[in-house]
Amino acid sequence: MSGLSRTVSVDRDRLVAYADASGDQNPIHRDAEVARSVGLPDVIAHGMWTMGAALELVTDYVGGDPGRVLSCQTRFTGMVVVPEGRSVEVLVEGEVTKTDEQAGTETLQLTATCAGEKVLGRCQAVVRRAGTDA
Fold it and tell me: What does pTM read for this prediction?
């Protein structure tokens, strides 16, 4: 995909901070033993953290104004595995695929990958274009 691109790093400390901020204390996001006991390879990032990481690209695109993000949707298609003592990177890429002049909006298609594997599918956001009123 061409156009916009951003890499977001995540480590266990960031997962703990996200769990505390979001209230999602599921141990698969903090405890490798629990994660493995349910068939996961290791601790995994929260799906909503991953979606939020993708939306950082969109927010940057609209000049840092999250109020211009009108909608977003995605499917969680893979996991961001975060081994102890390591930071992993999520690559988010996007492009504008539709412009609606009358509505003053743009639709962005996004992809998010980690370690070469797609972690978000059918990911898109609709934003209000600069210079248009809500």
Answer: 0.89
**Domain assignment of residue 87, given as a range:** 4-128
Per the structure, the count of domains in the chain is 1
Sign of CA dihedral 71, 94, 123, 117: negative
**Cβ partners under 8 Å of residue 46, min gap 6:** 15, 18, 19, 22, 24, 26, 29
Does 134 reside within a domain?
Answer: no
The pLDDT profile of the chain, 134 residues, written as one tens digit per residue, is: 458 999 999 999 999 999 999 999 999 999 999 999 999 999 999 999 999 999 999 999 999 999 999 999 999 999 999 999 999 999 999 999 999 999 999 999 999 999 999 999 999 999 999 777 65
CA distance 5 to 103: 26
